[in-house]
Amino acid sequence: MADLLELHRRGAQRFSDLVDQIGDRWHDPTPDTEWDVRALVNHLTAEQLWAPPLMGGATIAEVGDRFEGDVLGADPVATWQRSVAAAAAAFNAPGALERTVHLSFGDTPGEEYVFQMTADLHVHAWDLATALGVDDTIDADAVTAIHQRFAPMEDMLRATGMFGEKVQVPDDADAQTRLLALLGRRPGGGLPAR
Q1: Tell me: the pLDDT tens digits for 24-68?
Q2: CA distances from residue 182 to 23, 24, 171 in whole angstroms, order as listed
Q3: How far apart are CA 135 and CA 105, in angstroms?
Q4: How many domains does the chain have?
Q5: 28 lies in a domain?
Q6: Interval 173-184: pLDDT, tens
Q7: Residue 11: CATH number of its domain
């Protein structure tokens, strides 16, 4: 399996490739009924913007509300590209994975923070691909790594409210389908009705 920084690179590249395909579809629905395509990309962009200050030792309070609301501006593709490049640089800095990052739920090893960001890139790339009606395959190494890390914490993760209810899938479902179901997504089910 690829190492964490390589998985992050792949996830960032995949999401970037999908952002490049949006065109005029910024208000199309996504599998998350709370977000259209622009809101989904805004969410991921804001997460990337948080990475450099947090990896640099800033606390949530020190960052404050500067990444609240619409961070995409008039050129969302360029804003995404700048933000993901800055996050990747922060994650690839010497010793980054060994640092302590001050997150909202407490101090966290840099490696864990990078893993969470990596998982978000891959899973939300599936959301964006589904919204755009293009190939929604998630990197196989990422599927394995995310499932291995999240499955033992399923109850705790679900209690955070960040994931929907677990979706039941057949016992012989493929690895990606099992991961998406774990995270409350309905693989192959198309977009929710609006």
Answers
A1: 999 999 998 889 999 999 999 999 999 999 999 998 888 888 899
A2: 31, 32, 13
A3: 35
A4: 1
A5: yes
A6: 999 999 998 888
A7: 1.20.120.450
